[in-house]
Amino acid sequence: MLTACGAIVRRLPLSIVRVLGAILGTIGYSVAIGERRRAIANIARAFPEWPRKQHKRTIRATFRHLGISVFELLWLPNLDTKLHETTVYEGTDKLLELIDAGRACIVFTAHVGNWEWLCYGSGKLGRPTAVLQRERNEADINRFITELRARAGVRTIDRGSTGSARELLQATKRGGILAFLIDQNLRTESVKVPFFGIPSPTPIGPAKLAIRSEAIAIAGFVERLPDGRHLIRFHEPIECKRDDDPIALTARMTEIIEAQIRRLPEQWVWMHDRWRERPKWDVTPVA
Question: Is the confidence at residue 286, as pLDDT, over 50?
């Protein structure tokens, strides 16, 4: 089904694709009442100084952005020929220099902007690229996303699969990009670090892996620009050493993620239950 829809959407101009996505997002805001209420409650925790109208206006824009991102996902293989007219890069020179020197670069990112565009665009840099994902319940969606990433040369590693730990270690040894999304509250080893001033369970595994392998830690994001293009930006790289503190690295990357969300709050997934307690998975007190 998704493959058939994608074949149709890829034939459309990107401007039309985005109009359709905006319509989907507007409908979603109206009918997904539970998600809308949760999103408004969450953004109110993050920005308590905002008036209620601004909370609602931002969440309406969030739904619209997500609707557009869904349709862009179906259109994404067109980046094979339309990359330079749709995508801008910043910070890639230093990243590629490190990779070409044989270093592993562990990218810490989040569900901001169209994160699958970031994934595809990173793959198009032409260096070994892998991403860890939490498998979805829908097998068709998993297969569609995995095959889509593979078109750009991105390898998908499923969290919790039998060989995932071995695959992650191999990825750090061969060098290239290994990306993790750390902005969600997951059933995995976590540490509480500040996120919008609230202690929030955050996966610590990526920081531990970066430190254990003495890799380069780097934050990377994609954002939708006013002119319709996507900006893929990589921040300053951080050299990891064996005696570094993984809690401090997780807190630092979460701080960078928060700054990105504060800049463009309508481009983050506010409907996610980010601050839910998960005592079973906590490994340390607040950093």
Answer: no
Dist. CA 282–CA 191, nearest whole Å: 6
- DSSP notation for 214-247: T-EEEEEEEEE-TTS-EEEEE---EE--TT--HH
Q: List the structure tokens of 3.
A: 């493959």
Q: Are 119 and 152 in contact (CB under 8 A)?
A: yes
> How does pLDDT run across 176-223, given as a tens digit for each residue?
999 999 999 988 899 999 999 999 999 999 999 999 999 999 999 999
263, 211 Cβ separation under 8 angstroms: no
Query: Do the bridges between strand 198-203 and strand 190-195 make them parallel or antiparallel, or are there none, so unpaired?
Result: antiparallel
In percent, the amount of the chain with pLDDT more than 90 equals 83
